[in-house]
Amino acid sequence: GNKNINAKLVLLGDVGAGKSSLVLRFVKGQFIEFQESTIGAAFFSQTLAVNDATVKFEIWDTAGQERYHSLAPMYYRGAAAAIIVYDITNQASFERGKKWVQELQAQGNPNMVMALAGNKADLLDAKKVEAEEAQAYAQEHGLFFMETSAKTATNVNDVFYEIAKRLPRV
Ligand code: GDP
Ligand code: MG
Question: ipTM value of the model?
Answer without folding.
Answer: 0.99
